[in-house]
Amino acid sequence: MPLIECRNVYKVYNPGRSSEFEALRNINLKIEKGESVAIMGPSGSGKSTLLHLIGCLDKPTKGKVFIDGIDISTLDENELARIRREKIGFVFQFFFLFPTLTALENVMLPMIFAGIPKRERIKRANYLLKLVGLEKFSHHYPQELSGGQRQKVAIARAIANNPQIILADEPTGNLDSKSGKEILDLLLRLNKEKKVTLIIVTHEKFIASRAKRIIFLKDGRIIREVRK
């Protein structure tokens, strides 16, 4: 059984109105545990919409999305939140760290919602910051960190609850080339060593080339796939 599966998935915004927009059209896709996948395509091709469906941030208009065998269209908001909390880690282009929290506190945050005791949260957050090379910056606030360092904190936060899946939406888009390479290397290391399924949305061919599989979208459809 694939870890992620989309069956005949459509996503339509404002259905039945003059402003109706079909963002995804008949998407059929299977992603196995431990894969590294890049999703490419021009702006408006449906990349982020597909990522949102896989991330249980939205539901398809038609068709089905399965995460670890669970049909997300049958879940209510609380159940979707549980899937996101337990199975999925998100990494975004703009980091989305809380400016009033230290690096350590930002990493601890998902563990609070998971009900992990404080002592264990602190221990694991320190371990994760060491894992991403930021153990010396645990008490720094986001504004005291570089863009690359902020993204490393965001990655540590994304894996705080041991997710099966990391979804990265343009994770290097706000970084210089050196920091971008470090972030990509870190994500791929997590994919290889922790067996985390990695899905990256990107415009950059170099980033996509590092994944084991590339999916090309255009006008809401999968038009081509490349496997290595």
| Poorly predicted segments | none
Q: What is the beta-strand fraction?
A: 25-35%
Number of helices: 7
Shape: globular
The CATH topology annotation reads as Rossmann fold
Quaternary state reads single chain
Instruction: Kindly name the structural category.
Output: alpha/beta
Q: What is the gyration radius calculated from CA atoms?
A: 18 Å
What's the level 1 CATH class?
Alpha Beta
Q: Helix fraction? A: 25-40%
- First CA to last CA: what distance? 21 Å
- Structural domains: how many: 1
CATH superfamily label? P-loop containing nucleotide triphosphate hydrolases
* Strand order of the biggest β-sheet: 6-7-8-3-9-10
**Number of DSSP E strands:** 10
* Biggest sheet overview: 6 strands, mixed
Secondary-structure arrangement, i.e. CATH architecture:
3-Layer(aba) Sandwich
Order of helices and strands: EEEHEEHEHHHEHEHEE
Kindly state the mean pLDDT as a whole number? Answer: 94
